Amino acid sequence: MEKWKSASNYMGEEYPEYYVLISQNRDSPPIDRANFDEALERLGGESETVKVIRSGHWAVGWVEVILIHESDKEHIGIGEKIQSELQDYPVLSEDRFSQYELDKVMGYWKSCGLRERIRLCQDCKIPFTAARFDDAPSRYNELWECLRE
């Protein structure tokens, strides 16, 4: 893990004695959100030495970063293990990632009106009659691929 560094235009509290584990922002995809939450859970949540720093950002709305204090050798070890896992495979928890992806797809589908659902069905080249379902029909992989993006 690398030590925290501020950007040249950063205006906030400084954390030079903390290591950066992982971050997410308003526009992060489900994989990044799942990894962030899984990492924080593995660390036992926020504590005196594990912080989640939240700040506004002009481009992505907000950013959250998990920091671990340099004195906390146990959590630094966990953080290094997490980063090592992510180098080998990009998902810390398949179950959490799948759930976040499902939530995103279903949330988007439910937020669409019938016309938008019909357009989505046409774009994905599946029968437009699938638009009538309250939940995104899981039998159409093409639709799920479109909605995951």
Summary keywords:
4 strands; 18% strand; Alpha-Beta Plaits; single chain; 149 residues; elongated
Question: How would you portray this structure in words?
Answer:
There is one protein chain. This protein has 2 domains: 2-92, Alpha-Beta Plaits, CATH 3.30.70; 112-148, no CATH class. The protein has 5 helices and 4 strands, in the order ββαββαααα. Strands 1-2-4-3 form a 4-stranded antiparallel β-sheet. The chain has helices at 30-42, 73-88, 94-111, 114-123, 141-148; strands at 2-3, 18-25, 50-57, 61-69.
CATH C-level category of the largest domain = Alpha Beta
Fold-level CATH name of the largest domain: Alpha-Beta Plaits
* Total discrete domains: 2
Portion of residues in beta strands equals 15-25%
Looking across the biggest beta sheet, what order are the strands in? 1-2-4-3
> What can be said about the biggest beta sheet?
4 strands, antiparallel
Helix content: 40-55%
- List the secondary-structure elements in sequence, H or E: EEHEEHHHH
Number of strands: 4
Unreliable segments (pLDDT under 50, ≥5 consecutive)? none
Rounded mean pLDDT is 92
Rounded radius of gyration (Å)? 19 Å
In short:
This protein is α+β, with helices and mostly antiparallel strands and 149 residues long. It has helices at 30-42, 73-88, 94-111, 114-123, 141-148, and strands at 2-3, 18-25, 50-57, 61-69.
Set down the secondary structure blueprint:
Blueprint: E1 2-3, E2 18-25, H1 30-42, E3 50-57, E4 61-69, H2 73-88, H3 94-111, H4 114-123, H5 141-148
Antiparallel strand pairs: 1-2, 2-4, 3-4
Helix pairs in contact: 1-3
